[in-house]
Amino acid sequence: MNRCSLNEGFTQYRWRVLLPGASWTTLYTGSNSTYTYTFEISPGLHQGNVKVELQVRNNASPNLYDTEEYDVTVSRPQRVYHLKDHLGNVRTSVDVDGDVVGYDDYYPFGLPMPGRSSQTGSNPNDDYKFTGYELDEVAGTDLKMYHANARGYDPILGRFGQIDPLSSERAGLSPYNYVQNNPLSRIDPTGLLDDIVFNSVDEEGNKREIGRIVTDKYDQEINIDSELISSAIPDDYDPISTDLPKAIADGTLDYLGVQALSLDISAEAAFKLGVQGELSLIALVGGKNQGDWGVALQGNALLGVEGSFTGSVSAYWPISGGDLSLDRLSGFEYGIQGSLLGPSAAYFEGVEFSTSYPYVNRSYAGASIGGSAGIPELTGSGSGYLGYSGYLYRSDGR
Question: What is the average pLDDT value for the chain, to the nearest integer?
Answer without folding.
Answer: 76
